[in-house]
Amino acid sequence: MDIMNTATAFTFADVSLKTHLDRSTDEELDALDFGVIGVDDKGLVRRYNSFESKAAGLSLPRVLGHALFTVVAPCMNNFMVAQRFEDALEAHVSLDVTIDYVLTLRMRPVKVKLRLLASPAEATRYVLVHRPA
To answer: What is the pTM of this model?
Structure first.
């Protein structure tokens, strides 16, 4: 199966995106045209694609294994992002919400859309970052 065709068949708004991300290789994540940050149940970054690395200016080694909401992106440590993951985890429910957001850490403020994805059946939770062209 062609990696590019598999990855580009999915968009930021795709209904089945969580399933695709869980099954994707790192190379398939790198082929996407939006940022992907996958964290484990402790909030440590376990997946990080090249699109997000370039856009945020943070290298893979700088991010992998570090706490997303306290070390990598403390600007997301609030009720709009981090708390939604905690609430979904505590309630054992899925999370799929898209919000308008402004990223502010280590850069000038950038308006983005964040999509927060989590499922009680899967350990990895995702913050997806769509930057307007």
So the answer is: 0.91
Question: Do residues 127 and 37 lie in contact, with contact meaning Cβ atoms separated by under 8 Å?
Answer: yes
Q: Buried b / exposed e across 65-97, counting CB within 10 Å, b at 16+? A: ebebbeebbebbbeeebbebbeebeeeeeebee
Record the tokens describing residue 82, joined without a space. Answer: 């981090």
Element (H or E) spanning 110, and its range?
strand 110-118
Listed residue (55, 34, 49) closest to 107, CA to CA: 55
pLDDT tens sequence across 75-104? 999 999 999 999 999 999 999 999 999 998
Asked if residues 35 and 52 have their Cβ atoms less than 8 Å apart, the reply is: yes
- DSSP SS3 for 104: coil
